[in-house]
Structure formats: structure tokens, C-alpha cells
Amino acid sequence: MNVGQLRISRRSIAMAAALVGMVSLAIGAHAALNMRALDAAKAIETEQSTFAAGKHASKIALVIGNGNYPDASDPLAQPINDARALTAALRHNGFDVDVVEDASRDDMARAVERMKAKIRPDSVVMLFFGGYGVQVGRESFMIPVDATIWKETDVRRQGVSIESVLDMMKEQGARAKLVVIDASRRNPYERRFRAFSHGLAPIAAPDNALILTSATPGKVADDGKGRHSVLMTELLANLNAQATGAETVFNKTRVAISRASDGEQVPSVSSSLLEDVRLGGESAGG
Predict the structure, then answer these.
(1) DSSP for 7-42, written as a single string
(2) Confidence of residue 282 (pLDDT cuts 50, 70, 90)
(3) For residues 251 and 72, what is the distance between their CA atoms, to the nearest angstrom?
(4) Are 183 and 234 in contact (CB under 8 A)?
(5) Residue 3's pLDDT band (boundaries 50, 70, 90)?
(6) Alpha-carbon gap, residue 251 to 249, rounded angstroms
(7) Model pLDDT, residue 196
């Protein structure tokens, strides 16, 4: 091989190496572009999923109806009927409902824990309790059917604090908290340590919460003779209205009961909602 041929061979090798390098760079650039496109597609998919989750927020309810209290002279017929009717209405409107009847202290504690496990940051969460309620130290307690109460300290030990359930909802990051308490009845416990029943205490609404109780704080309401309590009868009637916000439902229920009783029974509504929540559909803000 002469010198000229050697130079040509070296030049060919160099050009081939350069070509290989260019091809490699092109392949690498193409792969990088593909990765960027894939990442962008994943980001769009995640954003769309998040948006969809916001549009279809989870709706969770715990419904408790306590009627058979051994310490009462007669069982309460309405709370269990009310719990069943409300459960059917809420399920029809897309709620995941956990219903508990004649709940003991342990039953109620387990039910609250089940609800806690379901709550997500986008959740609309509802608590209903029908039965006996007692206030102690400006705090309201739901009374289980197995409670043995002779003094105020027994209420704290054996009852379930409504405020504690609200605090749990807040700590879990629930988007909206709805509470309906039909428990402002004359109960068989307070006469053991009080001259008269004090009803429920005011229930402070944490952020983005809506609370309906069957009577004004410090007042009691007698049960009627119907299948459902007065509160549940009006609540169900307003709940069945299409595309109605929860705050409107609760306020219409309050006004209807007040008018029907000529002011003898005036439910209480407390709200800190930042956006209204439609019980029969998506939230007004969603």
C-alpha cells in the first residue's frame, strides 16, 4: 500500500467515525424528545385525573340511629326509622353510607374509625345522629344505648363528643363537613344530676362546616307521633329538591319547623361553609 492509499483510508475511517457520531447524537436527541413527550403526556394525564377527582369528590356519611335505651321508660321509635330513610336518600344521591342502629359505645367508636379511614382531601363528609344527647361543660355528647350514666363525669366517659368527630374530620382534611344532630330530647339521665334537661350546647363549626340541630342550644324538643321526627320529615322533603345546596336545605328545614310549631321548636343552623355543597350532585364550586 502506498502513502496516498493510506491517507485515503485514514480519511475514510475519520469520516465514517464522524458519521457514526452524528447518527448516535441524532438517536440520543430523538430518544430525549420521546422521553420529554412521554413525561408531558403523563403530566397531562395526572392533571386530568386530579381534575376529574375534584369533579367527582367522594361523599361519605355516617348515620347512627339509637332507639332502644334500657334506662328509658319507652324505646324511641323515630331515630331508627329516620336513620334508614336518610340512608336511602343519601345513597340515592351518591353517598357511601355506613349506617349503625342501636349502637353501643364500641359500635360508635368503630364506626367513627371507619369513616376516618375513608376521608380524603376532596371528601364531603356527613354525620347524622338520632337518639339522646347530653351537654356537659358546654360540650355536646351523643349517648350510646349501653351507657350507664349517673353523674356528669359518666357522660364524658361513656358518650361520644360531637366536637371530637368534627375535629377528626378537620384533621383528615375533609373538604366539607356536614352534621345533623336530632338529639335535643328530654332524656332519662339528666334528672339524676340536674333539675331539668339542658338540651345540647352550641356546637362550634370548624372551617367549612355546616351543622343542623333539632332545637336551639339549651332547649329540648318533644317527639311527635309520626313515623319520622319533625326534623327528619322536613329534612327529607328539602333534600329531595333537585340541585339544592346543603345550606339551603338546612335553612329551609329550620324555617319550616319553626313555622309549623309556632316557634315552640326552632332548630339551629351554624355555618362556616366557604362554598355551598349540593347534596344531590356536585358541590357548587366543583
Answers:
(1) HHHHHHHHHHHHHHHHHHHHHHHHHHHHHHHHHHHH
(2) very low
(3) 32
(4) no
(5) very low
(6) 6
(7) 75
State the virtual CA torsion across 32, 35, 39, 42 in degrees, nearest 10: 160
- Measure the CA–CA gap between 96 and 266, rounded to whole angstroms: 30
Quick check: 249 and 235 in contact, CB under 8 A?
A: yes
User: At residue 230, does pLDDT exceed 50?
Assistant: yes
In tens, the pLDDT along 240-259 reads 876 579 999 999 999 999 99
Integer CA distances (angstroms), 149 to 79, 105, 129, 161, 189, in order: 20, 13, 19, 15, 6
At residue 286, the pLDDT reads 40
pTM: 0.78
The terminus-to-terminus CA distance of the chain in angstroms comes to: 82
Classify residue 278 by its DSSP letter: B
- What is the rounded CA–CA span in Å between residue 194 and residue 166? 27
Query: Using 50, 70 and 90 to split pLDDT, how confident is the model at 276?
Result: confident
Is residue 235 within 8 A of residue 86, CB to CB? The reply is yes
How does strand 176-182 pair with strand 209-213?
Answer: parallel
CA distance 211 to 125: 12
12 Cβ neighbours under 8 A, 6+ residues apart = none
Q: How far apart are CA 63 and CA 56, in angstroms?
A: 22
Distance separating alpha carbons of residues 199 and 162, to the nearest angstrom = 14
Mean pLDDT (whole number) for 77-103: 96
Locus of grid cell 342550644: 217
Q: Across-strand partners of 65?
A: 101, 130
The identity of residue 239, as a single letter, is L
* Percent of the chain residues topping a pLDDT of 70: 77
